[in-house]
Amino acid sequence: MEKQRHSDFAAPVSPARDILDHSGRRLARYWPSWLAPQAQARLWDQLQALPWQQPQVKLFGQAHPIPRRQCYLARPGCHYRYSGLLLAPQPFPAALEPILTRLNALGQWGFNAALVNHYRDGRDRMGWHRDDEPELGPKPDLAILSLGQERVLRLRWQVGPSEGVALAPGSLLWLEPGVWHGLNPSARASQARISLTFRRVIPGFHPDREQGITGAD
């Protein structure tokens, strides 16, 4: 098994900075160059082998494929549901283990799951949402590692204008619990982007059993 090099985790070219809303309240914290370029390239190649899916969600009674591909990685027993989709965990690839260790040392977040999103070009997107699923606990942390095409993530609180942050390849973004976020389509984004969104899921919490949801399989 290939070992992760210490140099894979780059010292930021500039200090981590806070992303603030119009009132000065912090939305997120941003590390612009957390993962070194050579490590980004290796990880990108290894993620291509994931069992990508493009599930359908119901909107106004009609089924539509989500506008991106995704794969859910997690420790055993860490089920996750959003938008009516129950995601059964795939095991973490070996290449992600040292990244997960480094992340949890940085913030003491206890991340044990990652939803990996593949945006094939600027047409792929993510609508406005916030993490409020019960299996994430009362104040869930979320960290986003970005690879590939730079895209602008919009951030806001429930009320108020949004702020945009351009997520450079290799960057890391931690969101304050409860922050709404979304990725708009972009005509200027011609290349693919992969985002790894790390979360802590309560082990053994099964959304179907806890919420009385049936037919998820």
From TrEMBL:
This one is known as Alkylated DNA repair dioxygenase AlkB
Q: Which UniProt keywords apply?
A: Dioxygenase, Oxidoreductase
Q: Which organism is it from?
A: Ferrimonas marina
Q: Name one GO biological process term.
A: DNA alkylation repair
List positions binding 2-oxoglutarate: 117, 119, 129, 181, 193, 197, 199
**What Gene Ontology molecular-function terms does this entry list?**
broad specificity oxidative DNA demethylase activity; cytosine C-5 DNA demethylase activity; ferrous iron binding
Keyword Oxidoreductase in record = yes
Q: Where is the Fe2OG dioxygenase domain?
A: 110-202
Which PROSITE patterns would you find in this protein's record?
FE2OG_OXY (PS51471)
Q: Can you tell me which residues bind substrate? A: 80-82, 132
Under the heading InterPro entries, the entry gives: AlkB-like, AlkB-like_sf, ALKBH2, Oxoglu/Fe-dep_dioxygenase_dom
